Amino acid sequence: MADDYSDLDLSNPTPVDPNNQGPVNKFLYNNLVPEYLKSEFYKPHINPDYDPKNPSKAKLGYTPGTSDFAAKALPDVLSWLSPAAKGAGLASKAIVPPLIAAKFPRIKDLIPKTLSQDNRLLLKEAIKNTPGAQLTSEGLSMPVRRQQQPSQAGKIVNSGGVFYEPKYDSPSIYGDDIPWGGPQQIEGHTLFRNPRFVSHDFVHHSGPNLFHPDEWEGIENQASEIDSLLNDPKSHNLGRSELDAFRKSYSPDLPPLSKELVHQHSSYIWPWNTEAAIAQKARDLGHDSIITFSEEHPSYEELQQGKPSLGEILDVRERRYPTPTGKFSLFPQYQSIIDKLKGQ
Questions:
Q1: Which of 115, 261, 263, 311 could form a disulfide with 119 if both were Cys (CB 3.0 to 4.6 A apart)?
Q2: Residue (of 83, 78, 299) closest to 174 by Cα position
Q3: What are the sequence ranges of the domains in the chain?
Q4: pTM for this structure?
């Protein structure tokens, strides 16, 4: 059943002067409208068709420059505020939607000056070659997708975040025939405000980029030792103890891995541990994602015809795997920002 927004105050549905609005519109204007849409060019005008006796049929007025942005956006924004849809997040298919992501901290220089000049140029070219990707004043806007097993939906992430890939015009490289994908596809548009760009093909290789090389080598060695202990029946209990200690030290945002997961997916423990450490470090540094880019990504080489492209993406904002019904869950660092905006 569609939300009729009966729980909201629509006494003044036309967003006019932000200093003279109803409480709902004032909240929307101040907290959800991106700064660039508050300029005079985009500023909506009073709709002459507005009838205060029949506000449900009122249409938003707008200047010619805005097209019908406001009319299309308002139902999604109101759905997010409605008690029936809290936590579902705007019009997004289980991806952190741009209007939510826009409230998270943004880094000043999206193309980091710490990259070499060659890599800065390569990254700009990779973004240009990635379908739908666009650098804006709000961040990196792009459509993404992932393939997962249906049993993963809604579960706590094992690797400290949710993996995605750009939405290329080809089947996903993470199909059902490899261990890292699955038949369930999740896709949608999102906005990254503080990504950590890594010049490589896969997120795992960002370890030396985030940690001191000696520290990262120690993390990998610990992860390998735990893997060996867990796969030896004589030392499994010791391995379990070492595993819990490792996760507590390097990925404290996550709960311990369950016995069932360790038993059923023993071959995944090493990558889960190292990726969880990477995600935790990125999150602690204030990043919302790790995004790889390369001159010739091996998985997209034929599709991109040797052109630079964006590759694997780890969204470190998401605490649970997304669901096909549109649900997603944020780590407390991000959820607290949204709760504050909602007055919780």
A1: 115
A2: 299
A3: 23-86, 117-212+271-341
A4: 0.72
